[in-house]
Backbone:
């Protein structure tokens, strides 16, 4: 008898779960959003009036979708993106400043190239693990602490991690070492040895507590480096980088070639170019190469 009641309880719980589970597709094959803001933005983008169903064909016709909100806006924001699973040909998705926290519906978006989660409540990025085409990912000021799901994303070129806090940096070894742009502004960093395997073009490390920058020694492809608002005292490694081709580059416009404006930002550090002769000579040798330095 006890076994019978256990089985009965199991089926009741299973039925209850199925009954409360949301469905994002009705019997006619039309999309059900369960989020008025999401639905409104889709209708505006596709010019589909209220009352006219949004079909699978409509969803599959979109390659870009902006669900973002304005910062500090008191208006309702997108929270439930469950219906996004049917927008399977999206290449760009912007959910910045929304109330989205669950990315699991994105695991159907295998064509996604660019994802912006700036200032969201997202914690778990494991749904991104299979997105092999993802090139541009912004997780700034979200709640992400584990980057290991990014392992294997060999196309990833731009990664923004501003404002995040990490206790374990071992996952950085699994991130594509060919990153071209990396931002770790305001991450509470004291040391940056975990960056030794990278050689990006753009590196943002401002508003941290970094003292030693020797880990940058092999980053000869650097074009722009922001170290402002840190505790850096020794910049000799930057001189070596400049001698090895860093902070330089060219951009082509048609048949003409112009020097691109790259710069090195050292503002608000423990540097004294007025009284420290070694620091002064180091920075002058860098500037004499035509490199714009903000100090």
Residues:
């Amino acid at each position: 008898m006890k076994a019978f009641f256990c089985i009965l309880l199991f089926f009741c719980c299973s039925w209850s779960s199925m009954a409360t589970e949301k469905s994002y597709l009705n019997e006619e094959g039309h999309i059900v959003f369960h989020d008025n803001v999401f639905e409104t933005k889709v209708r505006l983008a596709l010019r589909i009036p209220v009352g006219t169903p949004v079909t699978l064909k409509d969803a599959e016709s979109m390659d870009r979708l902006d669900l973002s909100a304005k910062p500090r806006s008191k208006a309702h924001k997108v929270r439930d993106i469950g219906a996004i699973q049917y927008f399977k040909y999206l290449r760009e998705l912007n959910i910045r400043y929304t109330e989205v926290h669950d990315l699991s519906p994105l695991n159907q978006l295998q064509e996604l190239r660019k994802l912006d989660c700036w200032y969201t409540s997202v914690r778990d990025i494991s749904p991104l693990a299979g997105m092999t085409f993802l090139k541009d990912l912004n997780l700034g000021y979200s709640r992400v602490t584990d980057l290991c799901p990014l392992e294997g994303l060999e196309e990833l070129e731009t990664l923004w991690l501003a404002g995040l806090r990490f206790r374990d940096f071992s996952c950085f070894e699994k991130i594509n070492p060919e990153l071209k742009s990396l931002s770790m502004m305001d991450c509470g960093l004291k040391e940056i040895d975990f960056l030794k395997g990278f050689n990006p073009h753009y590196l943002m490390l401002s508003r941290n507590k970094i003292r030693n920058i020797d880990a940058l020694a092999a980053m000869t492809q650097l074009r722009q480096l922001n170290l402002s608002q840190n505790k850096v005292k020794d910049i000799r490694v930057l001189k070596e980088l400049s001698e090895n081709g860093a902070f330089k580059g060219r951009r082509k416009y048609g048949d003409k070639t112009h020097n691109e404006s790259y710069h090195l930002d050292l503002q608000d550090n423990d540097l004294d170019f007025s009284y420290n002769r070694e620091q002064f000579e180091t920075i002058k040798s860098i500037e004499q190469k035509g490199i714009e330095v903000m100090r």
Q: What stands out?
A: The chain has one domain: 39-294. The first strand starts at residue 64 and ends at 66.
